[in-house]
Specification:
By secondary structure, this protein is α/β, with parallel strands linked by helices. It has two domains: 116 residues, Rossmann fold; 128 residues, 2-Layer Sandwich (Hypothetical Protein Tm841, Chain: A,domain 3), CATH 3.30.1180.10. The strands form four sheets. Strands 2-1-6-7 form a four-stranded parallel β-sheet, sandwiched between helices. The chain has a four-stranded mixed β-sheet with strand order 8-14-12-13. Strands 4-3-5 form a three-stranded antiparallel β-sheet, with no helix packed on it. The radius of gyration is 19 Å and the shape is globular.
Length: 286
């Protein structure tokens, strides 16, 4: 235990709810969505539903990490109120966030020594779980070295996966080939993506009715349910209907013998890559 105040911060693509962020004093750095009509701060100024509506009308967009100046200003303000910062960043293999954080650290001069940057090697609520655990340890009074060691140990125990309704958005954003997109559309194939070693990859596919495919995806992801930490289990979705979420929560609760009542909405940055009716079950193993 130590008397130093440690603040936990994260990229906005951690996809934790506002209630969780506020309860654990986790502050986020906004990313940007660039469109033909302007540049918008993710979460704060634009949502997944906004971007789906825009792209369905033929609009194009791209996502950008916060630039180094944004990070530096954010960290500088935080360091006025705490002794050290641990920042949880989206995987360096899918975003420039980590490199921008290190550039910001240089801009901070001597104060940069009080900033610790942690490459989550995950995205969405996979990295959110790490941010949440870091915040819990900070609340317990653990020092930065202890927290970072635990995060290192925990990182490989996180499962970050999701199932997409189709491959349209994955194709638009260069995640799959045009041939694979066409095959998925032709045969009602639903891609299942995972983050492995920091990289977003196609894990497998589910074929046929999407509702049944979602159920199969959940059953496969939770087949080793006894090894899963129930307190660090999240449902995260992009553009899912009420009925979709009821089905998903019912299946998760049945398998886990738990009572998940809510689901977290994915940020626009995450959602733009996978499209509407995407759902993921994220968790940490014990």
């Amino acid at each position: 235990m130590n008397g130093r105040k440690i603040c936990i911060t994260a990229d906005c693509v951690c996809d934790l709810s506002d209630d969780i962020l506020k309860e654990h004093n986790i502050e986020i750095v906004y990313f940007y969505i660039v469109t033909d009509t302007g540049v918008f701060r993710d979460v704060d100024e634009i949502t997944a539903d906004n971007i789906f509506e825009y792209q369905s009308s033929g609009g194009r967009s791209e996502t950008r990490s916060a630039p180094p100046d944004d990070f530096a200003g954010f960290f500088r303000r935080k360091l006025r109120r705490c002794d050290e910062i641990i920042h949880i960043a989206v995987s360096s293999k899918v975003s420039r966030s980590v490199s921008h954080c290190y550039e910001a650290k240089e801009l901070l001069g001597e104060d940069g020594d009080r900033l610790h940057i942690f490459d989550s090697e995950h995205l969405s609520t996979g990295m959110g779980i790490l941010a949440l655990r870091a915040a819990e340890l900070a609340e317990e009074g653990r020092d930065a070295a202890y927290i970072l060691d635990e995060l290192e140990d925990m990182r490989d125990k996180i499962s970050t996966t999701f199932i997409a309704n189709n491959a349209e958005y994955l194709y638009i954003n260069g995640k799959v080939s045009k041939g694979l997109k066409n095959i998925c559309n032709l045969f009602s194939i639903h891609p299942v993506l995972e983050v492995k070693d920091g990289v977003l990859k196609l894990k497998t596919v589910e074929i046929g009715n999407y509702e049944k495919s979602m159920q199969r995806y959940i059953r496969k992801q939770l087949k080793h349910s006894d090894d899963i930490n129930k307190s660090l289990l999240f449902i995260t979705h992009a553009g899912c209907s009420v009925n979709d979420l009821k089905l998903v929560k019912r299946e998760v609760n049945r398998i886990m013998s738990t009572n998940i009542t809510g689901a977290v909405k994915a940020s626009a940055t995450i959602s733009v890559n996978c499209g509407p009716r995407t759902v993921g079950v994220f968790y940490a193993n014990k």
